[in-house]
Write a structure and sequence with these properties.
single chain; Immunoglobulin-like; seven-stranded mixed beta sheet; six-stranded mixed beta sheet; 6 helices; 21 strands
């Protein structure tokens, strides 16, 4: 719908005394080169109007959404590698007018002919601790193309705790940069291993997040950016989550993963998963997960695996079958220091290149066939770097 539709309503220039208000968000998810989903929560069920266009034309197009508290606005037909602006309009009570509740910008993904992008990666943040907020403040200084969260977004998994532990700490980033999430064990709730956990994810996570429809959302999916494909997996069945999809060989998730790994001709293949395949932290290596997935990752030449679960930072050497292997091994990076209580190292392994029990996040860049990663602590200090060239 064209922008001419909005003036049919009286546009109020200031926030009216009695008006619907955004109480969560807006936050961006499910980004691609030609679309994004804008989500936000209103304090009461109300219609909403979202205008958007290539900046600075914020009202080139208009989309109207019916009354709801949880508003989900998928914006299609966007231009690749373009900065867009968007505005959210909400009605004023006892009036035919609307007011501008929010205005922001985002940039769509580049296509493969422009093989460069950047992203932030971190996990295990759901805590509400001062350290989480300090780390969030450091991340907000960056302007990545997207953010990769490695799971355990909310300690209890409950939506009632999500504002304090997830949405508010990253509000600035989420309004301008899409987040892609891997589910963690805490996201399945306290009864993840029991029958009482049935329906928990459907009640506390699914209604509030938008995931690419390339797998079985929200459990597993892939997304493309530039010359890379990211595979986001749900390995919580290895941790005993009763209602998580299996990732054992022959399972639906495993067959999906092998199918798309085999068909992917991108320069880079990255994997995001919560439970680590290689770790010397408190949880350690999941032998069943390692046995199931490492042969697949090696066969289809996965470049890097991002992990969470252990509350620390760890980077392996290129490793294969439990031993360093510079020729054929894969680097595994654990980024579980997003805010929850830190873990110490439990054992020594030849393949563990660096281990730090510290709050941290990674900023990574891909420029054609070069990958660089810089890891920062909560004070903004560099604690590790990695360079990979193809």
């Amino acid at each position: 719908m064209r922008r001419a539709a909005l003036p049919l309503l009286l546009l109020l220039t200031a926030l009216p005394a009695a008006a619907a208000r955004i109480e969560r968000g807006p936050y961006l998810e499910n980004m691609a080169k030609d679309m994004v989903t804008v989500r936000f929560r209103v304090d009461a069920a109300t219609p909403a109007w979202v205008t958007y266009g290539a900046a600075p034309d914020c009202e080139r197009f208009l989309t109207i959404f019916p009354a709801a508290r949880e508003q989900k606005a998928p914006l299609f037909g966007l231009l690749p590698d373009t900065t867009h602006c968007y505005r959210i309009y909400l009605p004023a009570d006892q009036s035919t007018g609307v007011y501008k509740a929010y205005e922001g910008t985002f940039a769509t993904f580049r296509d493969e002919d422009k093989p460069r992008f950047s992203f932030l990666a971190f996990g295990d943040s759901g805590s509400g601790t001062p350290e989480q907020l300090q780390l969030a403040g450091q991340m907000d200084k960056f302007s990545p193309d997207f953010v990769l969260h490695l799971g355990d977004m909310v300690e209890s998994g409950l939506d009632a705790d999500a504002d304090a532990q997830y949405f508010r700490p990253y509000a600035g980033l989420q309004a301008r940069v899409p987040f892609f999430q891997a589910l963690g064990n805490h996201d399945y709730g306290a009864d993840a291993r029991a029958a009482a956990g049935r329906g928990f994810l459907r009640a506390n996570y699914v209604p509030f997040h938008s995931t690419p429809l390339t797998g079985l959302p929200p459990h597993y999916y892939f997304f493309d950016v530039g010359n890379a494909r990211f595979f986001v997996l749900d390995a919580n069945a290895f941790d005993g989550a009763k209602f998580a999809p299996s990732l054992e060989p022959g399972s639906r998730q495993y067959r999906w993963l092998e199918r798309f790994l085999a068909r992917t001709d991108k320069t880079w293949k990255f994997v995001a998963v919560h439970e680590p395949l290689y770790s010397t932290g408190a949880h350690g290596t999941s032998e069943a997960e390692l046995k199931a997935l490492e042969p697949l990752f090696l066969k289809y030449k996965v470049d890097l695996v991002f992990q969470g679960h252990d509350h620390d930072y760890e980077r392996t050497t290129p490793v294969r079958a439990g031993a360093p292997d510079e020729a054929e091994g894969i680097v595994y990076v654990t980024l579980g220091g997003g805010g929850s209580t830190l873990y110490i190292q439990r054992r020594n392994e030849d393949w563990s290149e660096k281990f730090l029990p510290t709050y941290s996040f990674a900023y990574a860049e891909v420029a054609d066939k070069a990958f660089t990663m810089t890891v920062y602590n909560k004070d903004g200090e560099v604690i590790d770097t990695l360079e990979v060239t193809k």
